[in-house]
Amino acid sequence: MADGDEFYVRYYVGHKGKFGHEFLEFEFRPDGRLRYANDSNYKNEKMIRKECYVTQAVMRELRKTIEDSEILKEDDNHWPAPDRVGRQELEVVCGKEHISFTTSKIGSLADVQASKDPEGLRVFYYLVQDLKCFVFSLMWPPLPDQASVNGADPRGCRDPPAGPARPPPGPGPGSRPCFCRERRGGGGANKPCPAGRERRAQAVQRRPARQRAAAGCRRVRARSRRAPARAL
């Protein structure tokens, strides 16, 4: 970028409490360098640092987001000052314009409405949410879909590896149990088909030996309770 078209963004939010200095900070430099840091001492967590380079298309989209928000027209003179709850900083260099805002942490829109400049602080509040989502989507891309798990790139960059075709679903040991109507002695009854019986038998064999033994003991006790008493 040229000197007159320089673009830079930095955001910081943090506080100091019983776990020390905890903060989140990221910045976009004119050359497309993105730096991210997240430090939380809760449960002895370590600082997370990430760094990458983004394309100029990403930088243009980021610049468009900031310009559309009209944050460059706002002023932080009537915004809440930083306090023990926390501190927020937003610095933007967009061409010949340079802004630097400082305010306290905003918990919800109720804090925005209670301020002396709710309109300007609302613009800041929504822009910060958009910037966080923007950065998180770059640092932690979404999980791959089922196609990429099977070997295909979700963007279609390469074909999945060739392999045996998956058999169509149908009755068999690995399919869901099905019930068919079998005629026995002129009457009708819903009875599991042989494939269903085979599937259940294989499921029993896959159980641990302890579970099979416990199931057998339960069947023996059930039969003994049902058996009639023998005459002496």
TrEMBL record:
Keywords: Nucleus. It is found in: Nucleus. Residues 202-217 have a biased composition (Low complexity). Belongs to the mago nashi family. It holds the Pfam family Mago_nashi. It comes from Prorocentrum cordatum. InterPro entries: Mago_nashi, Mago_nashi_sf. This is Uncharacterized protein. Residues 161-174 have a biased composition (Pro residues). Residues 218-232 have a biased composition (Basic residues). Residues 151-232 are annotated as: Disordered.
